[in-house]
Write a structure and sequence with these properties.
The complex is a heterodimer.
Chain A lengths: L44 H13 L3 E6 L2 H4 L13 E4 L4 H17 L9 E7 H7 L1 H10 L3 E7 L40 H8 L4 E6 L3 H13 L3 E7 L3 H4 L6 H10 L7 E3 L4 E3 L10 H5 L10 H17 L6 H5 L12 H9 L2
Helix pairs in contact in A: 1-7, 3-5
Chain B lengths: L9 E5 L1 H11 L4 E4 L6 H13 L5 E4 L3 H14 L3 E5 L1 H6 L4 H6 L5 E5 L14 H4 L7 E5 L2 H16 L7 E5 L9 E5 L2 H7 L16 E2 L8 H30 L7 E4 L6 E5 L3 H14 L4 E6 L1 E3 L3 H8 L4 E5 L14 H9 L7 E6 L9 H17 L6 E3 L5
Parallel strand pairs in B: 2-3, 2-4, 4-5, 5-7, 6-7, 11-12, 11-14, 14-15, 15-16
Antiparallel strand pairs in B: 1-8, 6-13, 10-12
Helix pairs in contact in B: 1-2, 1-7, 10-13, 11-12
Amino acid sequence: MATIEVQRQVLPILGNPNQGARFYNPELPSSEPFVPGHRTCAGCGPSIQYRMTSKAAGDNTILVGPTGCMYVANSSYLCTPYNVPWAHTQIGSAGSFTAGVAAAYEAMIRKGKWKGQFPNIICEAGDGSASDIGLASISGALYRNHDCLIICYDNEQYANTGIQASSRTPYGGMTTFSPPGPLVPEGKKLYPKDLARMMAAGHPHCYVATASVGYPIDLMNKVRKGLNHKGAAYLMVYTPCQKGFVYETPRSIDLGRLVVECGLYPMWEWNPEQRAYDYSFRPASMRPVSEYLKLQGRFGHLHAEHIANLQKFANEQWRMMGVALPEALIKAADAKNLVNMAAAEEAATVAETV
Amino acid sequence: MATATALKKKMVRINGCVAAAQAAKYADVDVIAAYPIRPYTATMMALAQMVANGELDAEYIVADSEHSQLSISHGASSSGARVFTGSSGVGVQFAYELYSPISGSRMPVQMMIADRTLDPPGDFGSEHTDALSTRDMGWLMGWSCDAQEAFDNHLIAYRIGEDPRVLLPQMVCQDGFFVSHITGDVELPDSGQVKEFLPPYKHPYPLDPRHPVSHGPQIMPEQGPPLQLERARAMEESMAVIEEVHEEFGKIFGRHYDPWLEEFMTEDAEVVFFLQGAHAVTARFAIQHMREKGLKVGMVRLRTIRPYPTDRVRESLSKFKVVGVIETNMGLGSVSSGGVLYAEVCAALYEADKRPLVLSFMAGMGGEAIVLKEFYWMTEKMMEVQKRGKIEKRTHWVGFEE
């Protein structure tokens, strides 16, 4: 069988990856595959992420959108924010629909039915799709190693349906499915599924990384690394949701940095060639979790013991990344040293002591 | 690359599953989405071997579920690839969510179904309930009764579904085991014939970075009805295309099918069987035997159930005194408390000036063969009704009554 060799794109990696959000990088492409004018909420973390990732990918890109905010609020019939091809798929079909697109282009290019460089194929799945209902389909796509990038825009809940708990919702996070009450003072009792590590451990041939909207250049570089990797790649991105987290809208990017500085969202890359984690990413400072929690209404009900539990969780994350814990963070994991979240001013004082 | 270019016409002895796989090869499919479940699996086994041998250049994907099979097919078809998938029984049900999105986005995915009884309790035998439960999801649907017809129907369905006037997915059904695993003589065509009959798949709005489009965006409630109407019209207007394509198929391949109904010994018949699929083969023998005894019995076999040929069914069946619908499917608590075909037949007859009496026979359930003496028994029941001029018992579970 005479076949045509598939040509793949190589995207350059941007300099100064660890800069803050307000840093202007002249290397950024001017094209906007995801344009303004859609119906997402003010300060929407997932749509900030969407703009960054699609900008990093460029125009020879196909986007797949399983049901979620980035489908419902973005794609309004007869007007669309997507300047590149985009298709909705079912919430449980994130990996499988994407695999179909990738397989189609492999076959069509090889058989001479479509001419051009293999497009970037990106799936934008919410954490409900990625950690719950579409988990098997994504695992299937990663396992089979289709040349695509699957992004979990992680706003730690089912936001589009009115804020329900997903298996990414943090311990203590209030949602309409995990409300606090006298019998369940902390609200959500379970800790979040360690989704990205699960993907790296189960599919070690894939490029897997975590990222946050707080570090745009780092995020865009991870998108490009994922796309340049021949085969499947997976990226889990922290994308705060103003509606569900209940915070002041201009603080989305601040939260994106605080969550990393507080150790609640470990940033790492899985290197498939070396079969090893890369924990070299270091935020500018380390802070107690209360600094992150106090900005969000969804944690407003927490008692000192719950905050201590979350600090213990964060400390475990730091240890997993091989980071030595400062005394203040160890102290902050003891409820005796903390106050209830209801006394927000006092919580702020505790935060200042680090 | 068209791998099928060098194929020459030949007779082979294959079963329905392999016939379906051969048709996919002749259609030069680009993406195949497989997941194992009996009895359709043999089709995917055959295709896997063809790909391994280099006889067919396609992406062969072992999916993680039937839901994924259909989503992969949806994604691949949306990108402009010709797609083949399939399933049986509960597998057909596991993928249920995708049937409406695929027809709604007008993607001509082709799905082979070798019927299998639904659970409980894990019966491998053929029963049409699996596919029939999806009959109103906007897929073209019909049954073959032998391997040759299965091969032909797969090619015909691609041609109809991919026609720009239609753009609808197709379920090409065959009875599990009775067709899927029974070997018969099949004429495989010259690849030139297929080339003449089936042009390359070209969707007008694929996911192509050079011509960006958005598929399946969120709509406001008032935008829903026009889109549903469009899909309903596509189904309705496919009827003319279906007739045109069957005629052309006959010209190119020399096998002529009425797209809607096969009538067998109906010229002077007073009582007829109405059925779909493989049991027609036994019915033909039973009818010949009864004809030798002077009984005026015949058979009408429905070849396409979606779109449903209402007018043709009415014209055909209103000629007779009694119609016995052989269901081979479950419609628990349905109109006849038997299967779902009864209601389709009666509704078509409602506007007829002369209406036959209609019985529902629950036969061939769980994949049991309908043997000759059961056809004789059903004929007796129909003749009793004809004599009496009215129906006392609408539904009969064949084999459970005297």
